[in-house]
Amino acid sequence: MVNITLVEEFVLVGFPQLHELAMVFYTIVLLMYLLSFLGNALIIFIVIMEPMLHTPMYFFLLNFSLAEICSTSAEIPKMLTNIISGKNTICFSCCVAQFFTVFAMGGVEFLMLSIMSFDRYMAICKPLIYKMVMTNQFIFQLALVAWIAGFLIVFSQSVVIWTFPYCRDNVIDHFFCDVGPVLKLACADTTLIELIGLIYGATFMWGSLGLSLVSYTHIVAAIIRISSATGRTKAFLTCASHLTVLIIFYTADMIMYLRPSTHGDIQLNKVISLVRTSFVPMLNPFIYTIRNSEFKTALDKTMRWMVVF
Fold first, then answer.
1. Do residues 78 and 173 make contact, with C-beta atoms less than 8 angstroms apart?
2. Which residue among 2, 40, 244, 273 is buried most deeply as judged by most CB within 10 Å?
3. Which residues have CB under 8 Å from 273's CB, separation 6+?
4. Backbone angles phi, psi at 171, to 5 degrees
5. In whole angstroms, what is the distance from residue 65 CA to residue 46 CA?
6. pTM of the entire structure?
């Protein structure tokens, strides 16, 4: 037996190359985070307050926005705190908790996007039985499955990462506790857990993407068959926002995680992660609402009610 010192905290490197631009970077990321948080919080508030939005589509959007808030809040505030304080450390348990939250919420978001695709398929391709199938009980069960599955798929990996001994360098070359940079510091063979994570990620991402693509294949075919140009435009606009978010999410995450977690360009991963966790969540509320007349009507109605109240 050899005496070793186990790591009790990690150092998050972040973006040290910014130097004198650190405060500019801090301000930009802070503004994007606030816009993301407020935009998604506004969606949740309006959907809850306005009865006309108590439909399956907006219920799933509410859940998606809640997962977005949890995911970005697990990463961005810690990074901003490190920049402003100059102290880049994070405790070991906090690191595992951050990893678990970020990836669990990512799983919830992927499943919620697939469920939202199925909802649009039912609304456009099966309108006569839509209300019979998409009952309140059924949509609640779908959302519950997404949340439970998102947590379970990451829980086992988090437990393994928690139990690994970390006795080498404690410097994580990232702005949050991403799985690859953390596993590089483990004093153990991480090949098996990386392989399992890769299989989980590929199955999860490709499976949920496949379900979404099947739904949209049927949706596009149904839209083409609509005789009215106005009807086709309305149906297309209903799905365009969701399809845009779908493409952005899957493209970014597949680039980062569909390979062994300790491989790849870490600098590229950091940039993509930053875009994925700050810029994209800021855009999502605008993508989902700016062309949505129902939401804008509900927002105007709620704002008028609040002013009068």
1. no
2. 40
3. 174, 175, 176, 178, 256
4. -95, 120
5. 12
6. 0.87
Give the length of the chain.
Answer: 309
Give burial (CB, 10 Å; 0-12/13-18/19+) of 92.
middle
- For range 199-213, the mean pLDDT: 83
Lowest mean pLDDT among 8-12, 87-91, 261-265, 304-308: 261-265
Nearest of 105, 262, 252, 88 to residue 175 by alpha carbon: 88
Tokens 């006309």 label which residue?
A: 52
- In the β-sheet with 171-172, what is the strand arrangement from edge to edge? 89-91, 9-12, 171-172
pLDDT at 197 over 50: yes
**Nearest residue to 190 (alpha-carbon basis) of 212, 213, 160, 235:** 160
Counting Cα atoms < 13 Å in the Cβ hemisphere of 217 gives 6
The answer to whether the CB of 223 falls within 8 A of the CB of 235 is yes
Tokens of 150: 């998102």
Judge contact between 150 and 107, C-beta under 8 A: yes
CA end-to-end span of the chain: 71
What is the pLDDT confidence band of residue 138, given thresholds at 50, 70 and 90?
very high
